[in-house]
Amino acid sequence: MAIARAAFLERGYSATSMAAIAALVGGSKGTLYGYFANKEALFGAVVQDLLDEHFLPVLEVLESQPNQSLEDVLGALALALGRFVVLPDAIASYRLAVAEAARFPAMGRTFFLSGPQRSYDFLAEWMARRIERGELRPQDPQLLARQFIALCKIGPNEEILLGSPIQPDDEQTRIIAQMAVSTFLAAHAVRPAG
């Protein structure tokens, strides 16, 4: 996975072949095809590996704090998300998918399903439970998940995607996370009567 990730991120999707990856690994192309049906499948596995390494631990914040307040859990999640979306590998893989998706729609779809959609699904399940508990207004959990993640990405993420070398410091990341949580709760939280 590490070799395939480096090859895709350094060379791009179109310039990376299964034969080149097999050569870098030191095996045969046939062996590689024994694990992955095609290049799209290998790319999907690379995206899942990146997500598993960096983003799923972020989402595990949701599971590890079942009794904390909605605001506290979302705050921890927003902070972790803010750090994830500016990681060099996260930026590079997103750039790669956007740049190549028009020419390779199957790769773009694989990227979306292996990365962003998995994240939305995980967060949507958690939000559905918070709706059942009466903490969030009844709405489509998928849309809630997408909106929350979008709020957490506001800030330096877009600038970094477009080439800015400046990384946010901890204070800037904290402020963005607080704003994301405040905005989300103002729109969707159920406030106690009285």
From TrEMBL:
Protein name: TetR/AcrR family transcriptional regulator
Key words of the record: DNA-binding
Xref: PROSITE patterns: HTH_TETR_2
Domain HTH tetR-type: from-to ranges: 1-54
Membrane-spanning ranges: none
DNA-binding annotation, residue ranges on this chain: 17-36
Pfam families, A to Z: TetR_C_7, TetR_N
